[in-house]
Amino acid sequence: MRLNKYIAHSGLCSRRHADELIKSGAVSVNGDIITNIGHEVTDEDYVKVNGKNIKLVEGNVYFVLNKPVNYLSSNKDPHHELLARDLINYNGKLNSIGRLDMDSEGLMIYTNDGIFTNIMTHPSFEITKKYLVSFNEYIPDEKLKEVENGVVIDGVITNRCKIKLKRRESKNTKIEIIISEGRNRQIRKMFEAVGYNVTGLKRLCHGEIELGELPIGKSRQFTKNELDYVRRVKAQFDGE
């Protein structure tokens, strides 16, 4: 197996990041620094990254979690007891694919698959995410259209998105929004840019992975159809 693929399949990082680690001299095989990303390794070789041994993951695992409000997406935080990762009954290493801020809820994906994580989060793949967003005020069509067309947040204009109006009253608006970016608190900042504050945000879908009827605070492993989706998108990645 090529060295960069071996590192990615260990769950440490994506293959692109593995390429960077190898080229920087951070990887050794059997005690020798290797800078060739195509170097071939076997199960009998000892591979270290930044001085730490790594090994292939014996099978990848994938979980969907319905994150509650007030839970952090971080795996560790000494200042906060409510961690979303702790809601999943699995003792192995898991990383989240993207994050939700503490005030948001809904779909989170956890896995030890570094390649799948990279595909789902890297901007070049433009994997979409759908959210249900609530406001305690009336938002007119022209403001929704303004957000759809792109607004400036943190000095950069957002990509076009899709908005579907679900309900609108004098002091209440609820929409579904589909975006293909993943900036920090992006949806909240997009609406702040046009003068409105989000009061509720729930992620419904990420790519073809859907929250469905999963209860708040509960997790489940991927279905057969979702595992098929993983294989399809990874095959696309390997084809590049």
Folded structure, characterized:
The protein has 240 residues and is α+β, with helices and mostly antiparallel strands. It is built from six helices and 15 strands. The protein has helices at residues 3-9, 15-23, 114-121, 141-149, 186-192, 224-238, and strands at 27-29, 32-33, 47-49, 52-54, 62-67, 95-97, 105-111, 129-135, 152-153, 156-157, 162-169, 172-179, 200-206, 209-210, 219-221. The strands form three sheets. Strands 5, 6, 7, 8, 11, 12, 13, 14 and 15 form a nine-stranded mixed beta sheet that branches. A hairpin with a 2-residue loop joins strand 9 (152-153) and strand 10 (156-157). Helix 1 packs across helix 2. The protein is elongated. It starts with a helix and ends with a helix. 29% of the residues are buried. The model has no long low-confidence stretch (mean pLDDT 91).
Concise account of the structure shown:
The chain has 240 residues and is α+β, with helices and mostly antiparallel strands. The protein has 6 helices and 15 strands.
Q: Identify the overall geometry.
A: elongated
Quaternary state reads single chain
Number of alpha- plus pi-helical segments: 6
Cα-atom Rg, whole angstroms? 20 Å
Low-confidence residue ranges: none
How far from one another are the termini?
17 Å
Mean pLDDT: 91
User: Helical residue percent?
Assistant: 10-25%
Strand tally is: 15
Which structural class do the helices and strands define?
alpha+beta
Q: Quote the beta fraction.
A: 25-35%
H/E element sequence: HHEEEEEEEHEHEEEEHEEEH
Biggest sheet overview: 9 strands, mixed
